[in-house]
Write a structure and sequence with these properties.
The complex is a heterodimer of chains A (331) and B (287). Chain A has 331 residues and is an alpha/beta fold. Chain A contains twelve helices and 14 strands. Chain B is elongated and about 80 Å long. Chain B starts with a helix and ends in a 5-residue tail after the last helix. Classes of the chains: A alpha/beta (331), B mainly alpha (287).
């Protein structure tokens, strides 16, 4: 049984199709990422899977329970870390966790022990009795993670877990998330638009754009299938006809030459490179510089959608909330 | 039950930790009571100046006095009641109105801050969210009403309580009024997208409910079309219970006291039921 199973999910808001017939499944213990720009339908998908909104059509099961008809069963086996920081500023860390424990009907004595455990897990023991308004952004996010774990969920949903955090804190949060997956044997579904993070952390990702899934696979598979290696080189002297020298090399998908410089897109760079260098030297060229870049998920996204992930802009409300978040994170 | 008290506990903790909010909420009724209640002295209209009194024959003084007493007790419930005491008890209920009407805003805020989603993904009844907030609002309203009453005492309310039992009834009536109003407001505003809308709704409710109650003037001097509105308005019933218990002493009409309290109880139960129903049916993350 997969931990999450979505079949042909659709969600329409008025005349906007937010989620347009997506299907995927997540295996137990997997860290699965939904990758796409703002407005792609990632959060809507999470909201459907966490019973916050009902799909217009299609079906989904989480831990075997139907998200339409078995909402309270679904709710008791999942944890959600939403995009916004929702821990309560005016309460202390412990009070926030106690509140969550009683909302999940964790018995008092069990809750106190569990609170200790999750505080330990996210390294917040010392700050637990302070009000959350004194926390840094990273600490808040960690408390948010701890709060979502209080009832030992089977499946954890993370909506943009590192949005608005600085680079160092982001790396830190990822350490915690990986630790949680390991120690709590969690299945995680997360959304992000930070390609590098998905690449480094997810077992599998689904690239989602305009409500549709464009591709699913491990980051390595996706890059192999949809990305290409890029080789940039520069030779000395002007008398060399780079174009004809390079043109015969096998595996070149695209070639652009500008004077003494060339940029090639190739399918298997590690095999092309030796042949390329051999040809250049054989043709009498002196190679001044040569560089190969492996594809990133960014390129995968561009090749799948024709756009960069960063071009999209969110709605005004989204921008407002993001700013609010960032301000709270910094404050 | 656990989930209701958890939500109530959160709301109350937040409230206790922001004293400025509490103070702000007390200022408005203080103005009404202190400025309006003191300046607009209806009973003063019936005071006959000394020199006029001296020139009247003794018999007519007695007639005038008894006439004024009758008028005063028709208007304010008892001849001993002055207008300030009358308004102060009215204002005690009006603060319950203000607190309750603004309590509904906490759902709009929780929605905006994302906290509502956290409540909604928890395996709890939707009605628990509403009932927790209603109870928290009612506790707040009760505390603030007591503070207003104390301010009134400091400013010269002439208290004349009939019996401890009736005073307990008065406290119950404040609580029931708060449950009624906050349930209704929350049911009405469950799906509002933002607190700006909520502000509009709050302003729309506050003044009409205050002016169609007996907070500032007795029902007997209202125009005929307004009287039935006052009778329906739960505020009126809470105010009458308060006045009966605190101002009229032994001249209180027990039958009508009981009727007002019964009306409030039924109203509170129906309103809380409506709030729970609306929550189970309509409270969601969808917009």
């Amino acid at each position: 049984m997969p931990a999450i199973e979505a079949e042909d999910l659709r969600k329409v808001f008025g005349d906007v199709v937010a989620v347009d017939g997506i299907s995927f499944s997540v295996e137990e213990g997997e860290l699965f990422g939904l990758l796409g720009p703002n407005g792609a339908g990632k959060t809507t998908t999470i909201n459907i899977l966490t019973t916050l909104i009902r799909p217009t059509s299609g079906s989904a099961r989480v831990w075997g329970y139907d998200v339409r008809t078995e909402t309270s069963k679904v709710r008791s086996v999942i944890g959600l870390v939403p995009q916004d920081l929702t821990v309560d500023d005016e309460l202390t860390g412990i009070e926030n966790l106690r509140l969550m424990a009683s909302l999940y009907h964790v018995p008092k004595d069990v809750a106190e022990r569990r609170i200790e455990e999750v505080l330990e897990l996210v390294d917040l023991k010392e700050a637990a009795r302070r009000r959350v308004e004194t926390y840094s952004g990273g600490m808040r996010k960690r408390l948010e993670l701890a709060a979502a774990l209080i009832h030992r969920p089977k499946v954890l949903f993370l909506d943009e877990p590192t949005l608005g955090l600085d680079v160092q804190t982001r790396a830190h949060i990822w350490d915690y998330i990986r630790r949680l997956v390991r120690e709590e044997q969690l299945t995680v579904l997360m959304t992000t638009h930070y390609m590098e993070e998905a690449d480094a952390n997810c077992d599998r990702v689904a690239v989602i754009d305009r409500g549709k899934i464009m591709a699913i696979g491990s980051p390595r598979e996706l890059k192999a299938a949809h990305g290409s290696d890029v080789i940039e080189l520069e030779v000395q002297g002007n008398g060399i006809d780079l174009h004809s020298l390079v043109n015969g090399v096998g595996g070149v998908l695209d070639l652009r030459v500008e004077g003494s410089r060339a940029v090639l897109k190739v399918s298997r760079g590690e095999e092309v490179l030796p042949e390329l260098v051999g040809r250049l030297i054989g043709g009498g060229a002196i190679v001044r510089r040569i560089e190969m870049r492996r594809p990133t998920l960014d390129e995968v996204f561009i090749s799948l959608t024709g756009r960069s992930i960063r071009e999209e802009h969110g709605s005004w409300e989204e921008v407002f909330r993001q700013r609010l978040n960032i301000r709270r994170v910094r404050g | 039950m656990g989930e209701i008290s958890a939500i109530m506990g959160r709301e109350l903790r937040k409230w206790v930790r922001s004293p400025p909010l509490l103070l702000m909420a007390l200022i408005q009724p203080l103005f009404w009571m202190g400025l309006y209640g003191k300046a607009f002295n209806l009973t003063g209209l019936f005071t006959v100046p000394e020199d006029v009194l001296r020139n009247l024959p003794p018999e007519s003084t007695r007639v005038v006095a008894s006439l004024f007493n009758q008028v005063a007790s028709r208007l304010f419930g008892s001849p001993e009641t002055d207008y300030f005491s009358f308004v102060a008890t009215g204002m005690t209920s009006v603060i319950v109105l203000f607190v309750s009407v603004f309590s509904g805003m906490s759902i709009a805020w929780d929605r905006r801050l994302g906290f509502l989603n956290k409540l909604l993904v928890a395996p709890i009844r939707r009605s628990s969210i509403v009932l927790g907030k209603v109870l928290a609002a009612s506790v707040r309203a009760l505390v603030q009403a007591m503070m207003v009453l104390l301010m009134g005492l400091a400013l010269g309310v002439r208290l004349n309580p009939a019996s401890p039992l009736l005073v307990a009834g008065a406290i119950a009536s404040i609580f029931l009024l708060a449950v009624s109003l906050s349930s209704l407001v929350i049911a009405l505003t469950l799906r509002l997208k933002s607190w700006e809308y909520h502000m509009a709704v709050a302003n729309l409710l506050n003044l009409p409910l205050m002016f169609t109650s007996t907070a500032l003037y007795p029902q007997s001097i209202m125009p005929d079309w307004m009287k039935p509105l006052a009778t329906l308005n739960p505020l009126t019933h809470a105010i009458e219970v308060l006045r009966g218990a605190l101002l009229y002493g032994n001249s209180v009409d027990l039958a009508s006291f009981q009727f007002h309290l019964a009306y409030l109880s039924v109203f509170a139960i129906l309103a809380a039921g409506l709030g729970s129903y609306a929550a189970n049916r309509y409270l969601s993350a969808e917009r």
